[in-house]
Give the backbone structure.
Amino acid sequence: MKKIRWLSLLLALVLFAALLLTGCGGSSSSAASGEAAGTSQGTDGDYDQITFAFFCNLFIPQDMQMIQDAMNEQLREKIHAEVTLVPLSLGTYDQQMNLMISGREKLDLYIMFGGDFSSAINQNKLAVVDPDLMAEYAPGVLDALGDYMDSVTVDGNVYGFPVNKDMATRRGVNLNRDLLEKHGLLEEAENIRNVDDLAALFEKMSALEPNLIMTSSQDNGKSVMESGFASFDKMGDYYGVLMDCGGDDLVLENLFETEWYAQTLEYIRDWYNKGWILSDGSINPDTGINLYKSGRLFSYLGDKKPGSYVDVQNTTGIPTMDGILTTPISTNDTTNGVIMAIPITCEDQVPVLKFLNLLYSDAEVLNILDWGIEGVHYERVPDTNTLIRYPEGVTSDNDGYGLNQGWSFGNQLISYAWETVGTDDYYEEMQEFNESAVKSKAIGFLFDSSSVKSEVAALDSVLAEYRLGLENGELDPEEYLPKFQQALREAGIEKVIAEKQRQLDEWAAAQN
């Protein structure tokens, strides 16, 4: 009798352990049925499991479990799935992703900055998305992105999905509106169309406000040239660029040997000598918005999209207006700002593609991830269709979510917008901005620098020595540009450009 009771207890423990195992990771119906990957549907109450990792730009919100629960209410009904959200600090994000993927942990979807996309492919971190499954289960993604899918297609294989947001960039300037109104210069600022117009404004403002620095680069590590003047496809690394985005042909040029580069350096040097540019911009950690907020700058240069001045106003408290200096352009860098990718650790692409389809086509699901819970984290602005604000009693200091990263997920153009953008048409303006951009003919080309990695490393060292100093006006181009050019030649820039050109020619031939 004791032996029978002992065996019964053992059998119960085994059954209990089995139940625990079937509840961990993935859909148990898929594992039990023996169906091929990509066909599992599950049964009622047995949902496909998706693990989704993403970085948090500022902090990990305390209400993340509430967000996950709300999303899963939607996902269970709409795609018979549940998602586990894995929010991670931006500072350790890349390291965490490397560990999860190399350790073959449960991970089905994650986001990355576009600058990491090529290396992720080369390091075999990303799964090739099955085209048939993509067409069947993610038509909303394809409809939203259209030709932008070219930027994530390599050798005919799709490796991810760009977040649909501002897919172009143009150079511009953030101007202190209070100072413009004070000195009667608002109308002149509104008519700025290029750097010559901006220089004329600086001439007047510097005389009226002699203690102010007129401008600086967008942030530490970027130059004045890059922030306010550059309007070409840098092809990822500046080593062989398309000055006209490939408008005439796909012939790469050495940027640093072009007449445009020499003339622009002289122009910026003149601004520097007049005292219009921050004197230590190459090493000062507080360039751009931080220095503007402090009141030491009249303006600062940087990338511009519709309504970008609103973000500056909200961050600095300074009434600000935009001045536009260049035509919008769309390149791999702008299109692939943030990419949603399926890693090799994903065992079943179908539920992930269904989830992505919602993020690109279902505003109800996307707004939960972008903004949180209505009535808790935000409320609708009366008499508007798309604008939201904090509910009464909620501020940025006590908001339990406040992720504010709509640019990181799915199709931002179908989500709500914060009331400070000031218009219900904000995302329509964004769409028009994207469509107006000059599109580089090299979108979709990714340079594999492995065969010239030694030269690239040497070139990086040369750029670190000269580029910021020259492009911020601190170094006299008459003396230092020839030294810079010679150092680049000795480091092997011609070899790198030749290899990039060879790959670009092969890529272009394959597109026809």
Summary: The chain has two domains: 48-167+337-413, 170-327+447-512. The longest strand covers residues 48-56. The domain at 170-327+447-512 is CATH 3.40.190.10 (D-Maltodextrin-Binding Protein; domain 2).
